[in-house]
Amino acid sequence: MTRRGRLALVFGVAVYLAAWAFGSHALYPLALGLVIAVLAAWAWMRLAARPLRLSRRTRGRGHFEGEDVDVTVEVELSAGLPPAGAVLYERVSKLGERATRLRPRRSRLSARYVLEHLPRGRYELESARAVLEDPFGLARTEVDLRAASTILVYPRLIELDHVFSDAGSSLPEGRRLLMHRPSGFDLHSVRDHQQGESLRRVHWRSTAKRARLMVKELEDAPRDEVAVLLDAQSGTAWGESFDVQVRAAGSLLFAHTSRNRRAVLVVNGNSQQTVQVSASEGDRRRALELLAAAEPDGARPAESVLADEMSAVLRALELVVVTARLTPRLVDRLVQRGHARRQVSLVYVEAATFAGGAPRREPSLLRLQAAGVPVATVRYGDDLAAALGGRALAEVSDA
Asked: What topology is assigned to 226-387 in CATH?
């Protein structure tokens, strides 16, 4: 009950007592009318506040950063007449709380609003409540609504005709560095040699240790052709630099899958997340969802991922690292992979330039290039398609 309702109720009771005290029968209808109106409004709100169900939907299948998102909300009433006035309060992650006035329509309340120019991200509905009120403002009730709703805003990617690492790596002397492509078989275990078996499968280390011939048991372990590692370590993002990292990682990922190459996307964030990607529509959608939700909140440095021998990153035939932080250990890992003739390339986003800093020379980049590792550097204001080696700039909006 609102303050106005309480005052009306008190006034109605006072008028009734005055009518009884002075014997004024003309005041009885006024007093009873006020009391009945307040009680009826209270009962109306009690009925309207029975379990409500909130539903939210957006127009279109996919939303890309910078676009407006149309949102339609509906609150279904389980019983009673719809209240004359209702306001929906929603708290959405990254956007805060917003109030939307609902319009009654049969047995439901509905409204529509527009979220303008949304940046890339995952927007989750954290809480929702509806405030219902009668037309005279005599009674009001607040109902908490349960609803699981998420809006995903995908990064705006570019379509690349070719990537900067396509030409292969070259040594400073101009010689070609031939990359070693490991087989798809992994050592599973060792066992005793059987008579008649080829000696080419002998595992000499185990043979020397056990003083008898031991052979390798191999299992066919299919490898991804390309692994794209998006370094989402905390403390590396300035301005929109991390969004550029995400665009670069997604654009390179889809450039490889468009050539029917199996790929894996690894996001090194608060928790390491991995998704296998092919040219199928479902895989592309899952990759876009992971890129949309990526945040620079990781505690594990990228070089630690490269040190994990069981990770999908090291099992891939080719590795692409997208990062905004170059550490000596990371550079060492990349150089070691290059010297081992394992394909590797680096996209370095110079985050300081997105905060107004001046570009600077990175000796680590020179070391990588000297080791035959292809490097693409992206600074604020750069054409991402040109930096990644693309010839055409086109939005990937049909994923």
From this structure: Rossmann fold (3.40.50)
